[in-house]
Amino acid sequence: ALKAGPPNCVLCCILSGLLEINYAFQEALNSAGEKLVVVDFSATWCGPCKMIKPFFHSLSEKYSNVVFLEVDVDDCQDVASECEVKCMPTFQFFKKGQKAHSVVISDIQNRDAMLHLMAIQYSLNR
């Protein structure tokens, strides 16, 4: 399902119908307006996903002007497929409802790559 992380993450909704989930995802992107949206595509069984999740949550607390979403690829297979997610964890950056960047983070040391992309994307679209 689509989930929110801690305090500053957006809660989309947890729905059972695939059409509703796809709609909820697009609605979350659209409702962000001009804000940068960072989406964490992960799975509960994925070890690297579990390792990076606290870091992702810390970003949501640090950057209140950015929308953070979590998508469980097992619960939201259509969304993951539409976003061309091939492995986890994958982080995608959206601006004005459109995908701007995608990065796969295989271990916690690569999190600097995500911060770098986030900084570039944010500064270019201020």
Give the gist of this structure.
By secondary structure, the protein is α+β, with helices and mostly antiparallel strands.
Rg estimate, integer Å: 13 Å
In oligomeric terms, what are we looking at? single chain
Helix and strand string, N-terminal first?
EHEHEHEEH
Average pLDDT works out at 74
CATH architecture: 3-Layer(aba) Sandwich
The CATH C-level class name: Alpha Beta
* Terminal CA distance: 30 Å
Q: Strand share of the residues?
A: 15-25%
User: How many strands, what sense, and barrel or not for the largest sheet?
Assistant: 5 strands, mixed
Helix content range of the residues, please?
A: 25-40%
Structural domain tally:
1
CATH superfamily: Glutaredoxin
- Helix and strand content put the structural class at alpha+beta
What do we call the CATH topology? Glutaredoxin
Strand arrangement across the biggest beta sheet: 1-3-2-4-5
Count the beta strands: 5
**Low-confidence spans: pLDDT under 50, at least 5 residues?**
4-19
- Rough outline: globular
Domain Thioredoxin: 1-125
Keywords: Disulfide bond, Redox-active center, Signal
Protein name: Thioredoxin domain-containing protein
Signal peptide: 1-24
Structural commentary:
- Helices cover 40% and strands 22% of the residues.
- The longest helix has 16 residues, at 47-62.
- The relative contact order is 0.21.
- Strand 2 (36-42), helix 2 and strand 3 (67-72) form a beta-alpha-beta unit.
- The protein has one domain (2-124): Glutaredoxin (3-Layer(aba) Sandwich), CATH 3.40.30.
- The protein is globular, with a radius of gyration of 13 Å.
- With 126 residues, the protein is an alpha+beta fold.
- A 5-stranded mixed beta sheet has the order 1-3-2-4-5, with helices on both faces.
